[in-house]
Amino acid sequence: MIEILKPAELAKARHTGGLVADILQALRSRSQAGTNLLDLDRWTEAMIAEAGAQSCYVDYAPSFGRGPFGHYICTAVNDAVLHGMPHDYALVDGDLLTLDLAVSHGGIAADAAISFIVGDADPTDDAESVAMIDATERALTAGIAAAEPGARLGDISHAIGSVLTAAGYSINTEFGGHGIGSTMHQDPHVANTGRPGRGYRLRPGLLLALEPWVMADTDELVTDADGWTLRSATGCRTAHSEHTIAITDGGAEILTLPRSAVR
């Protein structure tokens, strides 16, 4: 089912999106050398509870995972890219960390992800990781620009894929963006590459989570023993950027932008 939100529901989506963005920025500021991934998970749980919101992850049990996820945020480090299950690992300077968060508040969900390098290392020391993060962010910007009312899903996929391909990355099509609204994962699927002018026609009130992600030298994934964490098959680094957007009469509105200063 493809869900179209009413104006009152869109107002709720804006609130939820801002909450997701604020939590991610707070966690980014706390993600330093020595920070444990389990601490990030506990802090996320506390911030969600303080906001009177609900986690979209803790009880999430889709067919591709192994039972309920059981945590409040996805923490993917270095060669992990999607569904990174928090575990007992202390970050070190230079780690490439992706934080992916989905929360529901007032009956409407929002989903976003950020990738960044931990610590104060000179970015030129890891130009490959910086370039990879930049490519996913530019692809996300291109996808959002293509998300106009009356456009097709394929226009978004083509815009994202064109940036990633031009940057030299191969694209995995098993996982991509998705519809979102009263639940976290809905139709339609938004692939990270595709043909323009094809697929569902975008309508005002549609919410989409767009999420370009790449791996440095492969498009093949392997699954950890935890049944959830997806890693690059070659052990190369990865990056992932995501926003929830709303299709409006005036174009795409980004819902997952920070509302407040970093705590």
UniProtKB/TrEMBL annotation:
> What SUPFAM superfamilies does the entry give?
Creatinase/aminopeptidase
What does the protein in this record do?
Answer: Removes the N-terminal methionine from nascent proteins. The N-terminal methionine is often cleaved when the second residue in the primary sequence is small and uncharged (Met-Ala-, Cys, Gly, Pro, Ser, Thr, or Val). Requires deformylation of the N(alpha)-formylated initiator methionine before it can be hydrolyzed.
- In Gene Ontology terms, what is one molecular function of this protein? initiator methionyl aminopeptidase activity
Q: Which UniProt keywords apply?
A: Aminopeptidase, Hydrolase, Metal-binding, Protease
Q: What is this protein called?
A: Methionine aminopeptidase
* Any one Gene Ontology cellular component term annotated for this protein: cytosol
Q: Indicate yes or no for the key word Cell wall biogenesis/degradation.
A: no
Q: Give cofactor(s), names only.
A: Co(2+); Zn(2+); Mn(2+); Fe(2+)
Q: Which residues form the signal peptide?
A: none
Catalytic function, reaction form: Release of N-terminal amino acids, preferentially methionine, from peptides and arylamides
| Residues that, per the record, bind a divalent metal cation 1 | 100, 111, 242
Q: What is its EC number?
A: 3.4.11.18
What Pfam family does this protein match (any one)?
A: Peptidase_M24
* Record-listed a divalent metal cation 2 binding positions: 111, 178, 211, 242
Q: Which gene encodes it?
A: map_2
**Quaternary organization:** Monomer.
List residues binding substrate. Answer: 83, 185
